[in-house]
Amino acid sequence: MTVLPPLPSADRAILPDLAIVPAGIFAMGENDEDKFANDTERPRHEVAIPRDFGLGVFPVTVGEFRAFRPGHAPRESVGLPAVGISWLDATAYCEWLSENTGRAFRLPTEAEWEYACRAGSRDIFTHGSTLDTDQANYLYSEHGMKVGRGHRTPCGGFPPNAFGLFDMHGNVCEWAQDTWHPDYLGAPNDGSAWIEGGRRGWRVIRGGAWDYLPRLLRTSWRDALPEAIRRDNVGFRIACDL
Question: Which positions carry the signal peptide feature in this UniProt record (predicted)?
Answer without folding.
Answer: none
